[in-house]
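A.,

Following up on our hallway conversation. Structure tokens first:
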């Protein structure tokens, strides 16, 4: 007899669903705050908060997105005044992406949202449990980011 499949026992299922729920719940909050771009674009901003002035290809690699998906995200953020594109002085065929003042200050709003999530989570979990969860997810991300890592079916 086959064991019943329980998707809640799988990291991939859980992390995918959690990410989708966070995006779903963040979308109206962004719109109500006057930001007209999808929550998925926040990944671009997060990368730029760590290192400003990167090219589109590097963002695609970091965010694990196709060239066309990254381009749509960049256009949405540019239209919202969060980023700007400039010609790469080293290679005129490429453009570098930089945060605008608005994009830099948006990080404060994300920190406030993070604090709201933490407050909500602390009602159910201890700080230690949350830190352990973050550590495990970070290590899983690093493990799966290694090029030679694959999971056999």
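Then the amino acids I'd put at each of the 153 positions:
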């Amino acid at each position: 007899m086959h064991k019943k499949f329980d998707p809640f026992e799988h990291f991939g299922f859980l992390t995918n669903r959690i990410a989708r729920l966070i995006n779903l719940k963040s979308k109206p909050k962004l719109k109500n705050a006057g930001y007209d771009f999808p929550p998925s674009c926040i990944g671009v901003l997060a990368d730029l908060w760590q290192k400003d002035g990167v090219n589109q290809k590097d963002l695609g690699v970091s965010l694990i997105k196709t060239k066309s998906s990254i381009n749509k995200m960049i256009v949405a953020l540019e239209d919202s005044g969060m980023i700007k594109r400039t010609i790469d002085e080293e290679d005129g065929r490429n453009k570098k992406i930089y945060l605008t003042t608005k994009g830099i200050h948006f990080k404060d709003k994300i920190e406030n949202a993070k604090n709201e999530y933490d407050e909500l989570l602390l009602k159910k979990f201890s700080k230690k449990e949350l830190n352990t969860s973050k550590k495990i997810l970070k290590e899983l991300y690093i493990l799966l980011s290694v090029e030679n890592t694959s999971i056999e079916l």
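The chain has one domain: 32-143. Curious whether your intuition agrees with the design.

B.
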